[in-house]
Every structure is written in structure tokens, then in C-alpha cells.
Write a structure and sequence with these properties.
23 helices
Length: 617
């Protein structure tokens, strides 16, 4: 630019003539360098211009004569082309002037306009998420960070280019500029599998454990002290590489406690308590397209059908709080696509994937609660539906007090208790979670003191696995002591917030409990004294250690898990992840189990005062 004559320089800088109009048609302006290339194409088409750039004299001659040759060729062609010929420059059209392009553009404009009209002004939304206008899907944190730092990223790249190419001259100006791989709305985040890495680490740990054991024998070391410690930072029998080892077969416990000779489930109930999340998962969404239609045509009609054989229906939602004890379980289930819930928002194509996101469920549950609060129900019927810590009552003047419990598993008990206090006798609880059945069994004898005629049923499972469990019959079979102990047993053997023992399912623990009845005293004591802080010398912990030994080896006489570890490894050649955890690791696991059992055994209180979980491992 500095070397150009002033009049040409003014054309660029003052008059902004950076483009050339190739014809009088619209959208025909193109950059100057592109115009040169198109002129070159006319001459090069015959192949006569090949190699010109290698001869400076011929190249200068061609630069002077090339444009004139192109003009003569075009004039010659125009003289022989008829007026309607599409090759004639006068008939050229920009690609966006075509009928198909215009129809597509019109359809896109109408779609965008209709979406904005339905949603209102998106800039007036009061939520912090970054959403797409049509689907209302929320961008993940990586995409939000891209948008927020886009200008800074560009500035940084520009400064880096100037420094390396123009200032330091360490890179050629002809070098390739690397592409920025920034996550955008359409980017699918890859979740790398860690299975191979886990297997490799486990193999290394097993080899290390064996090598240490052999070296200790050669040096006459203390073998018992060796087995009192874990070989890694986490116990492999209780932890999955630093995280909870979650049981995938909690329902095995129901096979151990069910009463095969129970009576038939009644046709009518005084009250039905529904696990709200289970109901939402089970209801079909095939004939509705928006969340408003889902509430009006699916969810509320389902409640009306439930009221056909009962006078009261309770819907209980989970609370999704940050730093929840169930966070590990939710992470294992996977993360779904975040979508903003509003009346006109379209339902997602993958409903189960949508329900994996806790914020999605929280917004959906709040929306459904508000819709139910405004609906009209049949006379002499009532609906209680949770809304945060509060309960919305529809069709009744009898209110429920607020409840600070997080899980629907325990909050269901509060609703059962309220129904009993208001005259209900025959109650059904709808769920698919084994934890709910265990909790109801644990507090059944306390509930029956409110109304001795209590007839409590659980409608469990879905599809071909749908069945009914009589809590009365199960508790009669187990007896009061074992019924009250069940929440502690279930928490110890593995639930959503405590680890399961690797390779040891509910049936194995149940058999060990039947073989070692003395541990029932410990379970009863911990159920009656919730949140008791255990130590190595606690009588309850001593009995639990013996139970764990029997779980791993029913023929062992060892009273301590450290001794059982040594026996199983040295005498029975068990792998390091197939032997019990150390005594200290088992103590931490038991403390966590006691904490969860304490939440379950005190669930009849609408306002729980739970100690800090960090004091319980």
C-alpha cells in the first residue's frame, strides 16, 4: 500500500473501493484478487498459460495483455450467444436468487420468527443458562466458556501471530494457521472409557501386593501387620478407584424378605403415595409435543385415573441439592442433555436421557407441581404434591407441614404418617426403588402405633416385573427386631450412598446374617441410636467385623477382618480385591453406613437434624 500511487491509494483508503462489480447484477461484487483469478481463468482455459510464472519476460507480457485477451474472448462469446443463453453474463444469477434458495430462506425466517413469537423476547429471560432458541437445550460449561472467552482467544491468537511471524520472524508467513478446536453447541463431548486403565492399575496392584508379601516372608517381617494395611490409597473391595462401588442388584434383597403366602392386594385404597420420579419415567410421551401438553394430557389425567380407586393421592418428588450424598450414584447413571423447561418448549426425543440431568428434573417437577395446584379434581378427593420443602394441597383444607428431607425415599414415610393421622388405614406406595421398601419395613412398627389397623402395600416394578408387596406380611415373617434392623443391614451391605463389597451381593450378606444372629443386636442398637459414632472397640463394630468375615468365608473362625485377609490370601490364594477390607477401612465404611441408616430410621420426622456427614467418612 505504501508503494502505490496516491490516486490509487485514495481509492482504497478514502473511497473504500476494495471490491469490483463484475456486472450490474446484485451480489456481483467480488474482491480484487478474486477478479484477477477469474480473468486468469479465461486465458488459462486453453492451457496456453501454463508455465508463464516461471519466465519473468513472458509473465510481464501476459500481465499486460491478459485482461485485454479476456475482454476480446468475452466479446466474441457474447456475439454468438443468444439472449436467453444461461452462459451469457447478462443472464447470470447469484445462487441465493434461485427459487429453491428463496423458499429455504423464507422457511427459515418463518421458523425463527414463530419460535421467537412463542418464546417472547429471549433477551428478557431471567435464567443464567445459554440456550438454543428452537430446542431450548442448554449449553454445557465448556460451550459457555467458549462464548465468554471468544474475544480473548482471538486477541491472544492475533498477538501470537504478530509476534512469531512479523516481530520474531520465527515462523513463515506462508505457514499453516492451526485451527481452534473450541467446543460449540453441536460439539459432542467424548467420554473416554477408563476400563482398560482400571484393569491395568488393578493388575499392577495385585502384582505389587504379591511382591511385598513374598519379600516380607524372606525378611521375617510381621505378616499380621502387613495385612492390616491396604496396598493402595483405597480399599479395592469397597471402592472403584476412589469412588463408591455401587451395587447393581439391590433388588436381590426383596427375594430374601418377600412373603410368598401374602394375601391378594386390595382393589381400593384410602391413600396412594406415588414416587413422582417413577411416575414421570413410566408415563408415555408419544402423543404430546410440549411440556404444557405433557402436564395437561398425560400427567394430570394419570392422577385423575389414580383417584378412581382412592380418595387421596400424594406425589412426592426428590430434592436435588448440591454436594448430595447421592451425587456418585447420579454420576454413574450418566449426564443427560440439559434443556430448559417451559410450557412451549418441545419435549426431548430421548426422554430418559433428559431425565438423567438433575436440573432438568428439578425444573420439570416444579412445573408439574404448579400445574397440579391449578387443576380441578373430583369432589371429595384430595391431592398432596411436594413443591420444594413445602406441600401443595388440592381439594382439601387439611395441610401438611413443610419437610426438609432430600430424598423421596424417606419423604414418602412422612406422607404415609400424615395419611394415617387423618384416618387412612389401607395405603399403597408406588415405587421401583428397593430403598423405599426397606425404609417402610424399618418404620412399620412405629407407623402401626399411629393406627393399629394399618394395611401397607408397595406396588413395585414395571412391565412384566410389576408386583405387590405386603409390608404387613413381610414384617410378620421377619419379626420386629429384624424389621427394625433391616435399614442398617441394607446400608451396610451396599445402597445408593454406601459401597457394596466387591463380589458380595445381598443374598450372600443375608445368608451370613442368618448364620450369625448375634449381629442383630448390633443392628437393633444402631437403629435405636441413630448417628452413633463407632470406634474400633465398639461392641457393635466387633459384631459387624465377624459378620463380614462370614460373608467372605463361612468356615473361618476369625473374629477380625485383618486375620481373615491373611487366611484368604495366603491359604486360599484369593486375589487382593477378593479379600475383605482392612479393619480401618471397614470402620470408615461402617460409619458411612450408620449415617445413612440414621437418615432412614429418623425419617418420620418432617424436620430432620442430621449431623455433618464428614464426621462419618
Amino acid at each position: 500500500m505504501k508503494a502505490l500511487p496516491q490516486e490509487i491509494k485514495d481509492e482504497f483508503e478514502t473511497r473504500n473501493h476494495w471490491t469490483i462489480a463484475k456486472s450490474s447484477h446484485r451480489y456481483s461484487a467480488i474482491p480484487i484478487d478474486q477478479a484477477h483469478e477469474q480473468e486468469n481463468k479465461v486465458v488459462k482455459a486453453s492451457g496456453g498459460a501454463v508455465g508463464l510464472t516461471e519466465n519473468p519476460v513472458a509473465f510481464r507480457r501476459w500481465m499486460t495483455a491478459g485482461p485485454e485477451l479476456a475482454r476480446l474472448l468475452r466479446q466474441y462469446e457474447d456475439g454468438y450467444l443468444h439472449d436467453d443463453d444461461p452462459e451469457k453474463p447478462a443472464n447470470f444469477e447469484q445462487h441465493e436468487q434461485g427459487l429453491a434458495a428463496q423458499k429455504t430462506f423464507q422457511r427459515q425466517v418463518d421458523s425463527l420468527s414463530n419460535t421467537i413469537c412463542k418464546m417472547g423476547n429471549p433477551f428478557l429471560d431471567d435464567f443464567p443458562e445459554l440456550v438454543t432458541l428452537d430446542s431450548r437445550n442448554c449449553a454445557n460449561e465448556a460451550v459457555v466458556n467458549t462464548i465468554r472467552t471468544l474475544e480473548d482467544t482471538g486477541t491472544k491468537k492475533y498477538q501470537e501471530y504478530v509476534k512469531t511471524v512479523l516481530v520474531d520472524r520465527s515462523h513463515s508467513i506462508h505457514g499453516t494457521i492451526s485451527k481452534n478446536s473450541l467446543p460449540l453447541f453441536s460439539t459432542k463431548l467424548k467420554v473416554s472409557s477408563k476400563d482398560c486403565k482400571k484393569v491395568k492399575v488393578l493388575e499392577n496392584n495385585v502384582a505389587l501386593f504379591g511382591q511385598l508379601y513374598i519379600s516380607l516372608q524372606n525378611r521375617d517381617g510381621d505378616i499380621s501387620e502387613f495385612f492390616a494395611h491396604e496396598v493402595q490409597s483405597y480399599p479395592p473391595s469397597l471402592s472403584e478407584f476412589g469412588k463408591l462401588n455401587l451395587s447393581g442388584a439391590k433388588s436381590q434383597l426383596l427375594q430374601c424378605i418377600e412373603e410368598p403366602n401374602q394375601t391378594e392386594a386390595p382393589a381400593l385404597y384410602d391413600c396412594k403415595v406415588l414416587d413422582g420420579a417413577v411416575t414421570v419415567h413410566a408415563l408415555p410421551i408419544t402423543n404430546v409435543s410440549t411440556f404444557q401438553e405433557y402436564a395437561d394430557n398425560v400427567f394430570i389425567p394419570h392422577l385423575e385415573r389414580e383417584l378412581c380407586d382412592t380418595q387421596r393421592v400424594d406425589v412426592v418428588w426428590d430434592e436435588y441439592r448440591p454436594d448430595s450424598l447421592k451425587e456418585g450414584t447420579r454420576d454413574k447413571r450418566g449426564k443427560g442433555v440439559r434443556r430448559k423447561v417451559s410450557d412451549d418448549t418441545k419435549l426431548p426425543g430421548n426422554w430418559n436421557d433428559f431425565l438423567r440431568d438433575p436440573i432438568n428434573k428439578k425444573e420439570l417437577f416444579e412445573s408439574l407441581s404448579s400445574k397440579v395446584a391449578d387443576c380441578i379434581i373430583p369432589p371429595e378427593c384430595s391431592v398432596y404434591i411436594t413443591a420444594g420443602e413445602h406441600v401443595t394441597c388440592v381439594g382439601t383444607q387439611t395441610e401438611m407441614s413443610s419437610c426438609n428431607q432430600e430424598e423421596a425415599d424417606t419423604r414418602i414415610v412422612v406422607h404415609v404418617k400424615h395419611a394415617l393421622e387423618n384416618g387412612a388405614k389401607c395405603i399403597q406406595v408406588r415405587t421401583v426403588d428397593t430403598d423405599v421398601v426397606v425404609v417402610l419395613i424399618g418404620v412399620f412398627h412405629d407407623l402401626s402405633q399411629i393406627n393399629a389397623d394399618l394395611d401397607l402395600w408397595v406396588a413395585f416394578g414395571t412391565g412384566m416385573n410389576y408386583t405387590h408387596y405386603s409390608i404387613n406380611a413381610i414384617c410378620a415373617r421377619l419379626g420386629e427386631r429384624k424389621s427394625r434392623s433391616l435399614p442398617v443391614f441394607h446400608s451396610l451391605s451396599g445402597c445408593d450412598t454406601t459401597s457394596a463389597f466387591r463380589g458380595k451381593g445381598k443374598k450372600k450378606f443375608w445368608q451370613a446374617w442368618n448364620a450369625y444372629e448375634e449381629v442383630t443386636d448390633a443392628f437393633v442398637h444402631l437403629a435405636a441410636h441413630p448417628f452413633e459414632h463407632l470406634d474400633l472397640d465398639s461392641d457393635s463394630f466387633q459384631r459387624i467385623k465377624r459378620l463380614v468375615v462370614i460373608v467372605y468365608d463361612k468356615t473361618s473362625n476369625a473374629m477380625n477382618v485383618n486375620s481373615a485377609r491373611m487366611e484368604l490370601f495366603s491359604q486360599k490364594s484369593q486375589a487382593v480385591d477378593k479379600i475383605p477390607p482392612t479393619q480401618n477401612a471397614l470402620l470408615q465404611h461402617t460409619r458411612r453406613a450408620v449415617y445413612q441408616a440414621g437418615i432412614w430410621t429418623t425419617c418420620m420426622l418432617s424436620q430432620q437434624t442430621n449431623p455433618c456427614p464428614t464426621d462419618y467418612a
